[in-house]
Amino acid sequence: MPEQLPPDAAALRDRAERLARDVLVPLRDDADLETAERTDQIRAASKEAGIYPMVQPAEFGGGATLLALTVVRDTLGAHNVCHLPGIFGPSPGVLGGVGEPLRSQYLAPLLAGEKRAAFAFTEPDDAERATWGVLDGDTLTVNGQKSYVTGGASADFVNVLVEIEEQGPAMVVIDREAPGVRIRRTFGSVDGSHHAYMEFQDVRLPASHIVGEPGRGLPRAMRQIGDTRLALAAESVGLCRWVIDFVTDHISSPHRSGAPLGAREGVRLRYADMRIRAYAARSMVYRTARLGDAGENIINEGIAAKVFATEAIGDIVDTGIQLVGGGALRSGHPLEALYRRVRALRLAEGASDVLRLNLARGRLDLAKGRI
Fold it and tell me: Over the stretch 271-324, which tens digit does the pLDDT of each residue have?
């Protein structure tokens, strides 16, 4: 559990705590900084603290355990800075473990920060056919569309899930500016992130742009999604702690009624619910990370942790706003901004009810998962 960390993880937590408290919070709150300058300073400070390379492979200076990543993400969330760009370096994603030529042409530049990647998985609801490819000798021709490519408009290349005829699904690396690639539209979402609807029209690529073995693309894609689910869950439990600390200060402060709001029974009941949800969510996330580090299959546990933790932070922020009052709805208020950010988490990497169905299938049909 969070209180039973090995010495190296405890030292890492303390280092992340200092980084968040002494550097990241002041940078977050400095309204005079340009975004690029803020990101550069965050990146430099994170590298100095040894946090930046944690999500990268061991040969690139990373190789952190799931527990270590959970500790850091939880700590950053507890200071409401986990969303700031520049804290972590680029992760390999679906390119982890690739050989040549993808390693030197895409993976190495990605990890060095010289190229940016996007992940194209989601098909539009009205698509007549999922994105497909035809392999003819050493050439792969791709057609189709992806409707929700986060960061797609600014990426140098896109890792696309493609159904290769007669061979099955595969992850395929496609340069954003390759002939036949078109961004149909771009759009933002409530959490402030930016996305692209991308179309592929007779995009011709070398067969070497297929990542791994054709037919094994979906498991590779799901591994990346699984890692991200646990990351979102860890950040969510940290944010739960931040909201509770914010609300604790508010309801403990003097009030015009003559007694702090925290003296009221109704406020205490809602406050207790917040703490109960956060305690349960944090316990789930740390247990799941430890199971993963022990070599266990945590697909179903990761789903459970992601659903519970992201729903918990949504409910906790909502309750926090209710207890603080109408002032928390003002544009720019910390709770207002966080409310918008966390709403997207219940859809990211799988909507909550879709994941519930997957979890039930994992147990009832495949005898997987534990309680």
Answer: 999 999 999 999 999 999 999 999 999 999 999 999 999 999 999 999 999 999
Domain that holds residue 21: 7-91
CB 279 within 8 A of CB 334: no
Q: For the whole model, what pTM was predicted? A: 0.90
Q: CB pairs under 8 A, 24+ apart, for 92-96?
A: 92/56, 92/57, 93/117, 93/119, 93/159, 93/224, 94/119, 94/159, 94/171, 94/211, 94/220, 94/221, 94/223, 94/224, 95/159, 95/173, 95/211, 96/57
User: What CATH number did the domain enclosing 318 receive?
Assistant: 1.20.140.10
Q: Which helix (H) or strand (E) holds 227?
A: helix 217-252
- For residues 176 and 223, the answer to whether their CB atoms sit within 8 Å is no
- The answer to whether residues 238 and 301 belong to one domain is yes
Q: Which residues pair with 200 in a beta bridge?
A: 144, 181
Judged against a pLDDT cut of 70, whether residue 353 lies above it is answered with yes
Residue 169 DSSP one-character state: E
